[in-house]
Specification:
single chain; about 140 residues; mainly alpha; three-stranded parallel β-sheet; 8 helices; 3 strands; about 10% strand; globular
Length: about 140
């Protein structure tokens, strides 16, 4: 069943490539989230994996409107990320994080894809728990 979904996602992504690459394809996000929750038991990294297969630089465009905080290390990432998110949420309305534990590049892309909250001109933060082996892959796209 999962391989069938992957083939379907690939077809959808390729057919909507232009829209996805240039407008972050809100309809793709919605479709992926629905299908993942409906037909699988998780798959929090799959949308990011598929998006990266089509546009390896998508993280640059997805993260451009965010002030980003990256938390990495061997131990304590989850607690530090949670504390940082809670502190920021006391002062800002829009704080994005990756609570599913998807802390490699495809999971980070999925986190940004899942953010469908439109805040207008309000300042947006992304607090990301990133696997120490993935930091170099993430930071080259996030400025």
């Amino acid at each position: 069943m999962v391989s069938l979904l992957v083939k379907f996602y690939n077809f959808i992504l390729r057919s909507l490539f232009y829209e996805f690459k240039n407008e972050n394809c809100a309809s793709c996000r919605t479709l992926f989230q629905y299908l993942l929750h409906r037909f699988t038991t998780g798959g929090s990294s799959l949308p990011g994996k598929l998006a990266l297969a089509i546009d390896p630089n998508i993280l640059t465009s997805l993260s451009k409107d965010y002030r980003t905080i990256i938390i990495t290390g061997t131990n304590g990432k989850t607690v530090t990320t949670g504390l940082t998110v809670n502190i920021l949420k006391q002062h800002y309305n829009h704080v994005l994080t990756n609570p599913t534990g998807a802390n490699m590049q495809q999971g980070i892309v999925s986190t940004f894809l899942s953010d469908n909250k439109d805040t207008g001109s309000e300042e947006k933060f992304a607090v990301l728990e990133v696997d120490e082996a993935s930091v170099k892959h993430i930071t080259k796209y996030i400025s």
